[in-house]
Design goal:
By secondary structure, the protein is an alpha+beta fold. About 45% of the residues lie in helices and about 20% in strands. The strands form two sheets. Strands 1, 2, 4, 5, 6, 7, 9 and 10 form an eight-stranded antiparallel β-sheet that branches. It has a two-stranded antiparallel sheet with strand order 3-8. The N and C termini lie far apart (about 50 Å).
């Protein structure tokens, strides 16, 4: 069942399930950023494992000096005691769930499972073959339901229901991590991605992109989001902002010129969108690049 409008509207939700009797679960959180926030500094969860599910948008995480670029629908895992952060990048516009776990030790139960099942779950999570992979729609449904249950009145089966949702979520994580790596975007969408990259300064309306892909506008929107994790209009904006950030990092045209060259109707609108996605103004990025 989807979240209520009230819960969906909250910019940040943090749940500490241990207080509800769900031992081994340190925290489940959800953010919904309508604009970029400051970067997530490097940190670690002593003895804890963290699983992030990016609901929508994009996000960069860094572990062990390597950057991982997430898009809507991706899972990202940090294993116990790993130092991680956003690698100097902001927490971007988008929505994300995070789940922090303290996995059971030998002889301990976890989420109401039998001791043998608890051990098997712990071993499966620690043996995930990849830390970054595509998730499933069911994952969001399980986390939404868990969050909704948390805010409902206490009932005799509430803790059991919440535990079942997390177990189902973790089973999905294990299954998706073991599945085959995602194939490259299908030909119609791949062609459109290349077209967007090569024509950032030109009009890139959704109707025209759909026509080029040979799809109806409604079908194109669905296929595009399935392949990229974000709607086509937002993808175009993000691509333009990323190119603008690259150009601002070098000596060259004035900020206004960059804005017009990338299809923005005014420098004011460009600055507004730029800050929404990066957390910085174009002038701040240009000034920083000149000092380095």
């Amino acid at each position: 069942m989807p979240l209520s409008r009230n819960l969906m509207a909250r910019t940040r939700v943090e749940i500490h399930p241990t207080a509800a009797g769900l031992h081994g679960v340190l925290q489940l959180g959800r953010y919904n950023h309508t604009a970029a926030r400051s970067q997530l500094p490097e940190h670690m969860h002593a003895g804890g494992m963290e699983i992030c599910y990016l609901i929508k948008g994009c996000q960069t995480y860094r572990v062990g000096g390597r950057d991982f670029r997430l898009r809507g629908g991706d899972i990202f895992v940090t294993f116990p005691d790993e130092v991680h952060g956003t690698g100097g990048m902001p927490e971007e516009k988008g929505a994300l769930y995070w789940l922090q776990l303290r996995l059971p030790k030998k002889g301990e139960s976890f989420l109401g499972l039998q001791i043998s099942e608890s051990r098997a779950m712990s071993e499966a999570l620690l043996a995930l073959p990849r830390r970054h992979f595509r998730g499933s729609r069911a994952m969001k449904d399980h986390l939404d339901t868990f969050t909704r249950l948390h805010y409902e009145p206490t009932g005799r089966l509430k803790t059991c229901a919440m535990a079942n949702q997390l177990v189902a979520f973790l089973l999905e994580v294990v299954a998706c991590a073991k599945s085959q790596p995602q194939r490259p975007p299908a030909r119609p969408i791949f062609h459109i991605l290349q077209h967007i990259k090569n024509h950032l300064g030109e009009p890139l309306g959704v109707a025209e992109l759909a026509k080029q892909a040979g799809l109806s506008e409604a079908r194109f929107k669905v296929r595009f989001k399935e392949e990229t994790g974000i709607p086509p209009g937002e993808y175009v904006l993000r691509a333009r902002i990323e190119e603008a950030r690259r150009r601002l990092g070098k000596p060259g045209p004035a900020i206004t010129r960059i804005a017009f060259d990338l299809g923005f109707s005014s420098s004011q609108y460009f600055a507004t969108v730029f800050k929404r996605f990066t957390g910085q103004s174009p002038r701040e990025v240009r000034s920083l690049s000149q000092r380095n």
